[in-house]
Amino acid sequence: MTLWRRRELLIGALTVAAPFAAVARSAVQDHPAPLKRGARIAALAPGTWMERGDPLLEQLRMRCQQQGWVLQTPPELGGQWRWFSGTDQQRAAALRQAWLDPSIDALFLVGGGWGSARVLEQDWSIPPGPRWCVGFSDCSAVLLAQLAAGSSGGIHGWFGGSSGQWQRLVSLLTGASVQPLHGVGLRPGVAEGTLVVSNLTVATSLIGTPWFPSLRGAILVLEDTGEAPYRIDRQLTQWRAAGLLDGVRGIGLGRFSWAEDDVLPGDFSMAEILEERLGSLGLPLVRDLPVGHGRPNMALPLGVSARLDGRTGELTLVRAGEVEQKKGALRPPNEWSKTQLS
Predict the structure, then answer these.
(1) Is 125 a catalytic residue?
(2) Contact 92, 26 (CB under 8 A)
(3) Set 76, 85, 116, 137: catalytic member
(4) Which residues make Cβ contacts (< 8 Å) with residue 142, sequence separation at least 6?
(5) Euclidean distance between CA atoms 246 and 47, whole angstroms
């Protein structure tokens, strides 16, 4: 992979954007405290390096100032060791120090690329307490590890993009409500479950590690970039064969992008692969959610309750009180699918 391609993955959001965990976790009720004016944000790059004066960091600093937040950029962020901002040990130490620092209110993982999983194996485990942690792409590895550890507060999202995209992230961090996301319904049914959001390739690379959370009872949202349809086919076939989708209640698909010359005449298209591999599971299925590399990349929190409607294509975050109210009314997703298909 060329250096340009690696940097392209990093800024993709702005150009278009041992064993498994043994116990299935319900939506976590213990959330981090909403951010207020004066909150301190630590910018970290577990999976790449950032140039000094990077305009993306300056944009983040400006947006934080507008919220009354203070952005902190540790010295390690401006360093460089090969493709990374520091050695695996240095990046792990920076993540650990910020995570355990009680004066830090949130972590923004500002780089993509690859390498976040290398940080996770540096003899340190994410503690189970609540912690705001924002990132996507390769940094999905940290978000999944956080969820597997029982820690709430992970948000799949990006600080770039439009003001509307940023404001949705701010709303999640400050405890405000957000609007449902809309995609295209492929398989009918309505399901509620714990929201799990990730880059497909990154999640696949964590299979068989302690950082892969249980998906039982999950509303699973996946996205990817730079992967040809046949490689997405290969990964989803592995997920099916390994039983990772057993117990998943519904699946949402964000943006999947690839090079045009990755598809030859007669090949499956990306849409065909996604629907063929996932449409036979008997679950509500939605595509084209505004999530992942590209614009917009709308933020979604991990570990919270969500409702997916496979007919309308709507993905809604469900507040705790509403979950209790709806419990008696909802049927299991497979029953919904059978009813609405009959």
Answers:
(1) no
(2) no
(3) 137
(4) 46, 95, 109, 116, 119, 120, 126, 133, 135, 154
(5) 30
Q: How does strand 154-156 pair with strand 300-301? A: antiparallel
Q: Which of 192, 223, 227, 314 is catalytic?
A: 223
Instruction: Report the alpha-carbon distance of residue 257 to residue 205 in Å, rounded.
Output: 19
335 is catalytic: no
Q: Is 223 a catalytic residue?
A: yes
Q: Dihedral angle at the C-alpha atoms of 115, 104, 56, 17, nearest 10 degrees?
A: 60
Q: How far apart are CA 198 and CA 117, in angstroms?
A: 14
The 10s digit of each residue's pLDDT in 202-254 is 999 999 999 999 999 999 999 999 999 999 999 999 999 999 999 999 999 99
Q: Can you give the pTM of this predicted structure?
A: 0.86
Which residue of the set 116, 192, 293, 305 is catalytic? 293
Any bridge partners for residue 84, and if so which? 81
